[in-house]
């Protein structure tokens, strides 16, 4: 964890010194100048072909018979509605039967009834989309989120339907409009929606959308997903469903306000500007962390500005001490960002793994606070992100170091005896939160807390956000009746953790402070193996929301290639953090939808694989006849600490065949780079699972196997080994080709143990060795 954050910081600082931060306001000469485009990959769905109503891959007399039988209501015929809907009216009628007859008779072609786009007919309130324009208010600036929402519709509607739709001001010249309204925050609706809520409705054939800072954008993304058929599923590509006809019905009335105030996913963080509009923003990720928005030609206000952290860190006080003790070079050195960075480098280094600032020393506090102010300017200048401090929207890190080595000086020890070290360090954090108001009134400070102990007397200041960090059980989720046997919930039993959360939320509620969570759902150490905690994420996120937690930071690695289910887990986190009131059934529907978009028509095989993989996680600890489960945690455990190697050994061939079946059922790519990328993902998935399965079966099939099984085992391992290196896979971010990956293909020992360091449970490692 410490190495990961040091790496991220180095990237931020390196980017700061290498790239100047000159960003002009967005002032296009013409209204329809584009801020982004859709050249980024769109994968088009091919779930049906018009005329092939029985899905036998051809259009023939059986299709005609099936349509007639469906119209007549005869049982025993399965008809794909979209494939039979020639007139695109959303139903199967005699008109469709007649058109199909014309095709079969050679008097018409399927192409006569089918456009080149995936959504053949879009209507709003029954009116065709060609009768619409996008209408913004007369005084809407190009730099506002209202205008971004308009651009989203203008770019995605033609991409789905082939119909171009203009942006106009005031009223529509086409008779109907998609009207986008910037709501006054002080109004009754503005108070209801807050910064990110939205409302949309269809009245008298017009679509009206209402939002304040970010709501119009979120409403646009929802409509584009739910009605146009786009799927913003990850950074690398978008998906577009094939649909015959869609109507946003008259009387549609939707109001929604996101659940968690702060929602960040480090796994999906990427510095490429385009990815903001393909995952980061449509998925409701709302923080401005890192250098994702550095050097943008478009101001943050276009994206509705940002909520939560402008700078988040698990150990920032060491950096502030270093900044305050450094020497600022003169203006000849470079721009302000470069000068601050040089000042930082020249300061006194403190090891964040060993050092904590004194909580009672006045001179130490002055250094920390001075360094905080300078670091705020350094980061905001470097990323060119305005601090929205007047209304408490943004916060900035003010965290002790990544350890619990409290200061042992006489004054700190004396004060801690009266209450606790938690109290005196909370006093230090509170003081910073109060003092920073003189410079940035309304700015909140966020501070990580590792200690699982509530303060005795001190309550957090109204401008302080406490972020609870640490690792929790990944296979016994919150919000269920499953009690832990070992690591527990942040080192506590279920009851102790619930009491602690309720106490901290209660203390925050006394003043208006907040409690957020720093969550570890994946293993940074081993990319090629995946923690089976997809359901744990749902239960934990919803449970914590119900208990009053208001922010959620999903830890991971922004460079994670997602060989297994990591991208899906980050996607599902973003969905449930945006709407933490969703049911488990809805959560599973979204998972299945994601799997179809990523794994194609073989997705059901991958769904079954995932269910078995989760079961393998449930059985960890029972290996070797043990009777109690093992509680594994994210970030630190290894593959056979979060799945049972005995379960994998028993089910390896069947689970492997599920992946093979998904590959075989995948529709062949039609020259599209992104389609082939999806197939490559399945092959990489197969590679990682083979390494796991070969590790689980090494003793049985190789050490103790017969000549045939040993030969088959060796052949499969050689194929897996070669694919791993030829495809450029790697274990972690800390290595180019594998942190422990073997340099030669050999079976002198268990392949799994050659690629990883075994298990944190010594007896499991010995069993994998055959001892």
Short description:
It is built from 23 helices and 19 strands.
Chart the SSEs and their pairings:
Blueprint: H1 2-18, E1 42-44, H2 61-72, H3 81-84, H4 94-104, E2 119-124, E3 127-128, E4 132-136, H5 145-161, E5 167-169, E6 176-182, H6 188-193, E7 198-203, E8 206-211, H7 215-226, E9 230-231, E10 238-240, E11 243-248, E12 253-256, E13 262-265, E14 308-311, H8 317-325, H9 336-346, H10 362-383, E15 394-397, H11 410-418, H12 421-435, E16 444-449, E17 464-469, H13 494-511, E18 514-519, H14 534-546, E19 551-554, H15 566-578, H16 584-599, H17 603-618, H18 639-642, H19 645-665, H20 673-703, H21 707-726, H22 751-755, H23 762-769
Parallel strand pairs: 1-10, 2-11, 4-5, 4-6, 6-8, 13-19, 14-15, 15-16, 16-17, 17-18, 18-19
Antiparallel strand pairs: 2-3, 7-8, 7-12, 9-10
Helix pairs in contact: 2-4, 5-7, 8-9, 8-10, 9-10, 11-12, 14-15, 15-16, 16-17, 17-19, 19-20, 20-21
Question: What descriptive keywords fit this protein?
Answer:
771 residues; six-stranded mixed sheet; globular; seven-stranded parallel sheet; alpha/beta; 19 strands
Kindly state the percentage of residues in helix: 40-55%
Largest beta sheet: what is the strand line-up?
13-19-18-17-16-15-14
Most strands sheet:
7 strands, parallel
Number of helices: 23
Shape: globular
| Nearest-integer average pLDDT | 87
Structural class: alpha/beta
